[in-house]
Amino acid sequence: MFSGIIAAVGRITEITPREAGFRLHVDAGSLDLEDVALGDSIAHNGVCLTVVAKDGQTLMVDVSPETLSCTVGLDAPGEVNLEKALRLADRLGGHLVSGHVDGVGEVLRFDPVGDNRLLEIRAPREIAKYIARKGSVTVNGTSLTTNEVNGTDFTINLIPHTLENTILKHLQPGSRVNLEVDLIARYCERLLSAERDL
Hints:
The chain has helices at residues 65-69, 125-128, 160-165, 183-197; strands spanning 8-17, 22-27, 41-44, 47-55, 58-63, 78-84, 103-113, 116-122, 136-139, 142-150, 153-158, 176-181. By secondary structure, the protein is α+β, with helices and mostly antiparallel strands. The model has no long low-confidence stretch (mean pLDDT 95).
């Protein structure tokens, strides 16, 4: 589990083909890797990936074809948002995030509003129903609060701190982003529909 509070911006520096998928070599930037062991989970742009090797500030993670087919931002060198998995004693500053991307959205607007940015995203139809006004959504691993929701489109206000400390500052209309909806919303729907489905 994660909180959606980005700890560092890293960079995919090398991609090595494997029999199935790729191995990513990631410069972890300012992320403290002292307590990271092989087998630990680290979210890369909101995607939970397992550390398979480590060399100084570089970590290696394997990405399967399935993961590549339903996410963006992991198939080419470039910056990634990083977050280590939560420990039970950690403060939950964002919201509960599983690191399992629900769908890929498209940025419609990224407009300056003073020193903030108004971000508008179109979500895939099948997950849009889980996105609520003033609710939680994860965009490229970043825990955010929605402002307005209109069908499949929703808006978010990005403050300067978020812009400075995540890769969201690079977004523009047409950018594709990893989305994870609120975990509680999905379980509520399942509970309410269980009688009908079983």
